[in-house]
Amino acid sequence: MVDPGRETQYTESDVIEVFRDRSDYAEPLTASEVAEALGCSRRTALNRLHDLQEETDVTSKKVGGRSRVWWIPVRMDE
Asked: Domain Helix-turn-helix type: where (predicted)?
């Protein structure tokens, strides 16, 4: 049983699925959009995104004073 007040654990795979399940694969997402898709807090989504950036191809870019967007680069075969 999960302790009251404890948030469900979300895996990096759960976050990757958010990126893959979109109609526009190239559109970047905010941490808030990832959180909404997962049904978790923005902080939880942000933590998973930071983990993914260190371990996978997930990339981010600042787009304002405190705003950041995240995406998986689309690789084109040469």
From this structure: 27-61
**Three-point CA angle 30, 33, 71, nearest 5°:** 45
The CATH fold of domain 12-71: Arc Repressor Mutant, subunit A (1.10.10)
Q: What pTM did the predictor assign?
A: 0.81
What is the C-alpha separation between 12 and 19, in angstroms, rounded?
A: 11
From first CA to last CA, the distance across the chain in angstroms is 51
Q: Rounded to whole angstroms, how far apart are CA atoms 37 and 18? A: 7
pLDDT in tens, 17-36: 999 998 888 889 999 999 99
What sign for the dihedral angle of Cα 9, 64, 54, 30?
positive
